[in-house]
């Protein structure tokens, strides 16, 4: 390689290095941290290091050996802070009910004992293998508990998968609701965006600029401001209900807010540019004489649209649908302000676990489930795109 080629390559790498660094710091590192939190569970291993070291001595079925019991006693005696014990007890109590009171009595019995401690004498629950299994399982630094709970599953005492009780979690239902709302918004954007893009592509001059400016205007306004504007427009005394009542179309205000209708309307308005622009760019590349040629051959305008224009613009429709759907499944502000209790999406649940309950494991697991669903859909889209390209060739 010549000196000039090396210099040119070095210059190219230097130009893209800031972008790579930006992506690594603001996208790669948070993503890795989220993935780690979704499978990380260090509370037990930090609080009970001796139990973790002696866990291999027990088969998980018979009575725990004395070495394992003495390891628990040693950990409780050497515990250097209530915070570490409290984190471990919360983890244990979520896996086996009754661990909070059991550990409180055990700590008091161990601290007040002058000689050897009999755990069963302190509390008879230590003769129950379920409590020992929960304790040993908690010492593993990694767990699938959060990932299973994200889809409303858990492991029973034997380690087999079982569904959570219907009244204990609704993560799976909220995830299905999120996908349903995103799909509905995508369909609405496609129904509005396709004819709008066709009109914008068919005109020129100031008319085209006006149409494109109107669809791009939401991108220049804060999402919170746009959502607040829809909050004012959709309320019972808002502009839309007042106009419909003034025209005599309705007798009483329509419920357009704090329900699914308001969420879909506002999200469709916000995400419409992501549907219009890909379709518009594809329509510009289609020769304008195809529709007149189809009409000259006797095709009805609707038939010409279905057989000629729609297949050629399908690439833009699919691209726009992908952009809208992937953006919609992560929406938080619009459903939170305009939706009711049954209209909240998975982003609201992630925010609750991350902010209100500080359960970063569940927040990371739900984020990972959402990321996996998005990647699966993107892989399916890529496969369909490659198959269609191969068919055209």
Can you lay out the helices and strands and say which pair or pack?
Elements: H1 3-39, H2 43-47, H3 49-54, H4 66-77, H5 82-95, H6 99-112, H7 119-122, H8 129-138, H9 145-150, E1 153-155, E2 161-163, H10 171-202, H11 206-216, H12 223-234, H13 239-246, H14 260-284, H15 290-296, H16 301-328, H17 333-338, H18 346-356, H19 360-392
Antiparallel strand pairs: 1-2
Helix pairs in contact: 1-19, 10-11, 10-14, 10-16, 14-16, 15-16, 16-19, 18-19
Q: What key attributes describe this structure?
A:
393 residues, mainly alpha, 2 domains, two-stranded antiparallel ribbon, 2 strands
Give structural notes.
It is built from 19 helices and two strands. A hairpin with a 5-residue loop joins strand 1 and strand 2. It is elongated, with a radius of gyration of 30 Å. The protein starts with a helix and ends with a helix. The protein has helices at residues 3-39, 43-47, 49-54, 66-77, 82-95, 99-112, 119-122, 129-138, 145-150, 171-202, 206-216, 223-234, 239-246, 260-284, 290-296, 301-328, 333-338, 346-356, 360-392; strands at residues 153-155, 161-163. Helix content is 72%, strand content 2%. By secondary structure, it is mainly alpha-helical. A two-stranded antiparallel sheet has the order 1-2. It has two domains: 43-136, no CATH class; 171-392, MetI-like (MetI-like fold, Orthogonal Bundle), CATH 1.10.3720.10. Helix 15 runs antiparallel to helix 16 (301-328) and helix 16 packs antiparallel against helix 19 (360-392).
């Amino acid at each position: 390689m010549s000196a000039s080629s090396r210099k040119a390559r070095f210059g190219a790498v230097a130009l893209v290095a800031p972008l790579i660094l930006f992506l690594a710091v603001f996208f790669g590192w948070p993503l890795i941290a989220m993935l780690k939190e979704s499978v990380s569970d260090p509370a037990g291993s930090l609080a009970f290091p001796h139990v973790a070291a002696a866990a291999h001595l027990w088969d998980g079925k018979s009575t725990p050996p004395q070495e394992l019991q003495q390891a628990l006693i040693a950990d409780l005696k050497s515990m250097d802070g209530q915070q570490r014990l409290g984190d471990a007890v919360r983890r244990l109590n979520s896996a086996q009910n009754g661990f909070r009171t059991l550990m409180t009595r055990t700590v008091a019995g161990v601290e007040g004992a002058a000689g050897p401690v009999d755990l069963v004498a302190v509390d008879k629950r230590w003769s129950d293998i379920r409590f020992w299994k929960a304790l040993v399982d908690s010492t593993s630094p990694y767990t699938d508990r959060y990932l299973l709970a994200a889809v409303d599953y858990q492991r029973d005492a034997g380690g087999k998968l079982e569904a959570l009780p219907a009244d204990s979690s609704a993560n799976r239902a909220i995830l299905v609701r999120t996908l349903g709302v995103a799909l509905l918004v995508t369909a609405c954007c496609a129904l509005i965006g396709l004819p709008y893009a066709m009109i914008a592509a068919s005109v020129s001059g100031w008319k085209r600029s006006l149409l494109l400016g109107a669809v791009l205007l939401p991108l220049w306004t804060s999402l919170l401001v746009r959502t607040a504007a829809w909050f004012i427009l959709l309320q019972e005394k808002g502009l839309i209900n007042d106009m419909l009542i003034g025209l005599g179309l309705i007798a009483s205000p329509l419920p357009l807010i704090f329900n699914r209708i308001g969420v879909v309307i506002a999200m469709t308005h916000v995400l419409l540019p992501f549907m219009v622009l890909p379709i518009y760019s594809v329509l510009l590349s289609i020769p304008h004489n195809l529709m007149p040629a189809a009409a000259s051959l006797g095709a009805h305008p609707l038939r010409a649209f279905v057989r000629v224009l729609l297949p050629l613009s399908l690439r833009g429709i699919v691209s726009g649908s992908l952009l809208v759907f992937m953006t919609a499944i992560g929406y938080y502000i619009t459903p939170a302000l305009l939706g009711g209790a049954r209209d909240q999406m998975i982003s609201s649940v992630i925010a609750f676990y991350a902010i209100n309950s500080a359960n970063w494991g569940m927040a990371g697991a739900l984020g990972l489930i959402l990321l996996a669903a998005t990647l699966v859909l993107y892989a399916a889209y890529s496969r369909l795109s490659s198959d269609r390209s191969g068919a055209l060739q």
